[in-house]
Amino acid sequence: MQRKKKKQNFIFSALIVFLVFSFGCSFSGADMSRAEAAFVKKKQAETEVPKIYPRSSWSNAKYDKRSKKVWPAKYEDPKIIIVHHTATNYKNSTSKQIKKIYKYHSYTRKWGDIGYNYIIGKDGSIFEGRYGGNGVVGGHSYFNGTNYNEGSIGIAILGNYENENLSSAAQSSLEKLIGWLAANNGISIKSSIKFHSKSLDNAVVGHRNVAGTACPGKNIYNLMSEIRISAENLAGVFGSYAYQIPGDGEVYEMTGGKRYSASAKSPIVKISEKQLQLFSLGGAAAVSREYSYPSGTLFLSAGRRALLENGALRLISGNALLNSSYNPSSFVEIADEKWTGYATGTAAGFRSGAFVKDSGGNYFIISGNQKRKIVLSSEELKLIELGSAHEISPSESALYAEGENIASAAAFSEGTLMTKNNKNYYYITADGKKKIVTKNVFRATFSQEMAVKVSIKLLKKYKTGKKLSFQNGAAVKYGKKYYFIENGKRRQFASKNIAASMGYQNFQKAKKSEMSGIGNGEKIE
Asked: Lower CB density within 10 Å: C or N end of the chain?
């Protein structure tokens, strides 16, 4: 939780470190009127879009003037979000806590401003922190000579979460804020990323992931996976929103870290002027929103899910089908008008390699339009965790003809995804080998629920081939360009903003080996 300074008194460095961890995130600001104070004390409104109270709810002209003079705003495009706790045990109101932290950061540490970009109270109230708006470099994560503040957004939750539990209100607000900021800045929450000198498994991390600290406390850190999942789902929703200030006819959208006027997105959500102005104006939005989505795109609209294939929607219904065959984080949120504009095709089916169980207790691997019954010996059956199969209904089972039985543990169908420990995954190929599924490829297409859990002994029955390339339906970032994999070809988005405007969020960084065998397709523009 440090900002690099030109001079530092090393005699007191140990004391400073202690103070930083003790006062973690502190607030500062001016006195508020009674009406304003009452407004600030209200719980975070139960709406999808997080309400962010502006600096004026805790700061004043004196503090803002000092911030501009002592620590002028510097900007970097946000690439990751870092979660902190303040490690404080204040008993007074949220706004007073912010003032104390501001004074500690600004005056005691001589930074000139509060270091966190956003602060969340225990009641779920969200406050703007560091002066400057979206993309301003804060002072919350500097470690061993590396300034992790550059390119990150620092969110702090008031409290000490080594000792106390995170309130449901604070967790909900954290998830909403992360989802909203991720959608507006094009941050793919669960994508791995090389950030400065760190290789991170996700783009939303705890402070301890980039520095030698216990922050954000074990009782937040242990919830990070759950928080990421919820925030990622919210980001998919927020990505389709347009925003309007009450009483103003202009409609804006947020993409690529900026706001654009003349948006044609829907629905239109009311938002305060100060919250909208956190994002600098980038000009007029590209209103030609009738983009042609590529085949293989997964759509979500008003709770409905579908696979787009050859211009028609193939509806995905039932948990068994969804969990065994489709990655929930890959769905693109679209408006109802867009959904109804597509023709409806045949219902979506199970992917080849799906592991299912019928009502009669029989186990199958789906292979194209067939189901291959597993008829292994009792010894070989012990090599499979049968509980990882998805139970299907008689009507779902009837859609597939009986194929050739799987009589050997070394004869699973192409497309079967296997794992021993939910860490390493393998893909069975048509020639009976297993390909290594890298983290990037896995996150782009697969999920844990899609894998057959097996023993090491069974995995050893398959020779290991090359690494698996990205599959159809994957959204990837290769070099500095963004692509969608369609029918074995990579189709480049004309720009990152177009990809974000269309609602694509789950971009995975690709290595050369993971793009092997994938040709070039037409541009998406």
From this structure: C
